[in-house]
Amino acid sequence: MNRVSCGIIQDLLPLYYDNVCSADTQALVEEHLADCQACREVLSNMSSPMSLPLQTIEHNKLEGAGLQQVAAQWSRTKWISFAKGLLITCIAGVLLILAYVGLFKWNIISVPTRVIQVSDISQLKDGRIAYHVKMTDGYNVNQANYDTDAEGNLYVTPKRPIFKSKKFADMGLSNMYYTNDIAERNAYEKSFSDGVQIKALYLGTPDDRILIWEQGMELPAASESVEMQFNSEGD
């Protein structure tokens, strides 16, 4: 049998080393290795860790350190981007909430008197002035502000947000009796404000108003039904 060349054996050594060759090939390689020092060294080198020059090792260390710096920088950039995105999202959310409150909840629009119907102005037995207010445009009223000017004019101003609602438009401040206690208001003005005494009561604003009562005006007595309504509220 002719001896197999070292070149062929060395081509087979990777298969032999990984134990993925046939039994015949394994026997052939082992037979050759028994007599060939050169091929045994090649096989030995396969099982030994590769020795790299010191310069190459140092270069790889520098490259590894550089990659670590790049990774750290990328990580910092990623977190900074995440923080910025989170901050922008929070700001956008706050702005949306403020926009919603400002447009739908913040009562900054005075109801014009052209859509206010005032009726049944009278005086209760306890001195309070009562009058029925109805908004004829079918929209709700969320609150009523009270302001007194330097001349003693008290303004009761129904307020709405920019985007008004028709929900509950037939009840509450949109359709109910309002009452004002002038004596109580005068006591408040004397104790906690400028001491101006109320001389007139208006529904609306100084530029758009409906006179309800003024000093010297005699008001009719409230009806029994109105008296009963406010007496039942006080019980």
What does this structure look like?
With 235 residues, the chain is an alpha+beta fold. It has three domains: 6-47, no CATH class; 52-105; 109-234, no CATH class. The protein contains six helices and eight strands; from the N terminus they run ααααββββββαββα. The protein has helices at residues 6-17, 23-35, 37-47, 54-105, 182-192, 224-234; strands at 109-110, 116-123, 129-135, 143-148, 153-160, 175-180, 200-205, 208-214. The strands form two sheets. Strands 1, 4, 5, 7 and 8 form a five-stranded mixed sheet that branches. Strands 2-3-6 form a three-stranded antiparallel sheet, with no helix packed on it. A hairpin with a 4-residue loop joins strand 4 and strand 5. Helix 1 (6-17) packs across helix 2 and helix 2 packs across helix 3. It is rod-shaped and about 140 Å long.
Summarize this entry quickly.
By secondary structure, the chain is α+β, with helices and mostly antiparallel strands. It has 6 helices and 8 strands, in the order H-H-H-H-E-E-E-E-E-E-H-E-E-H. Strand 7 and strand 8 form a beta hairpin.
